[in-house]
């Protein structure tokens, strides 16, 4: 049975694993998760959890598991994993596809402030004179906002971080997406938010806050996507399924 590795942790990875389980029972599919959350949604097929130990560790794993093709369906901001996947697949001569959700496009009424990273986002909030800010970032990025003691932050995460938030004034909301525009509007308006900070993740699952901010006329400080390694890329699970079908016909 040809073995496919999906690098996961996203809705796109889950959708691909589900489609393969349904329509390609002749393939052995393993989804790999980083172990970032304690109760991940379980994809069908085999699941492995935790880092591989860099690109060399991943290369060893691919070799031992006799992987025939890799779909890197990690989040658009998981740049380290994407780099390791590219390097390991090149070294092992294994075909790799990047599956990454489509970028958001600016629409009339959007007030986006494009920044390169979390530190620049924090600076943009100071320039804006923001006082109540909605942050949907990971623990790593929150440190950049640590000095902004006059601002009240609403922070949303899937589960509570191991350490206290590095912010003087913050409310933590624990919730797993997707989040629709209506509920985001209620949250942002209800908390009197005056600026939103978001990663330019793209896709539908987290676009609700962007649509709600537009409807409320609020600025969105938008952190740019990191660069991805070159190589074939698709933006929806169906296209990744087609790519696999071409390489591994049933
Ligand atoms: N960054 C985000 O905003 C975000 C949002 C939603 C979901 N996620 C998901 O959360 C996971 C971690 O994201 P991240 O931004 O921390 O990644 P990252 O910075 O690119 O990766 C850091 C390290 O975590 C391990 N890792 C990452 N993804 C993995 C996977 N699917 N399977 C096995 N190991 C993995 C690798 O460790 P080794 O070097 O030891 O192999 C990698 O070097 C990813 O699976 C991603 O799809 C990320």
Give an account of the 3D structure.
The chain has 250 residues and is an alpha/beta fold. The chain folds into 2 domains: 3-102 and 227-247, Rossmann fold (3-Layer(aba) Sandwich), CATH 3.40.50.720; 111-223, Nitrogenase molybdenum iron protein domain (Rossmann fold), CATH 3.40.50.1980. It is 33% helix and 23% strand. It contains 8 helices and 12 strands. Strands 3-2-1-4-5-12 form a 6-stranded parallel beta sheet, with helices on both faces. A 6-stranded parallel beta sheet has the order 6-11-10-7-8-9, with helices on both faces. β4, α3 and β5 (96-99) form a beta-alpha-beta unit. α1 packs across α8 and α6 (181-190) crosses α7. The protein is elongated, with a radius of gyration of 19 Å. The mean pLDDT is 97. Residues 7-10, 32-34, 36, 51-54, 57-58, 74-75, 77-81, 84, 138, 199 line the site of NADP nicotinamide-adenine-dinucleotide phosphate. Residues 7-10, 32-34, 36, 51-54, 57-58, 74-75, 77-81, 84, 138, 199 line the site of NADP nicotinamide-adenine-dinucleotide phosphate (NAP).
The CATH superfamily label of the largest domain reads NAD(P)-binding Rossmann-like Domain
Shape: elongated
The average pLDDT score comes to: 97
| CATH architectural grouping of the largest domain | 3-Layer(aba) Sandwich
Measured as a percent range, the helix fraction is 25-40%
Count of distinct structural domains: 2
Radius of gyration: 19 Å
Main sheet record: 6 strands, parallel
Rounded to the nearest angstrom, the distance between the terminal CA atoms is 10 Å
Number of strands: 12
Name the CATH class of the largest domain. Alpha Beta
Strand order of the largest sheet: 3-2-1-4-5-12
Percentage beta strand: 15-25%
**What is the helix/strand order?**
EHEEHEHEEHEHEEHEHEEH
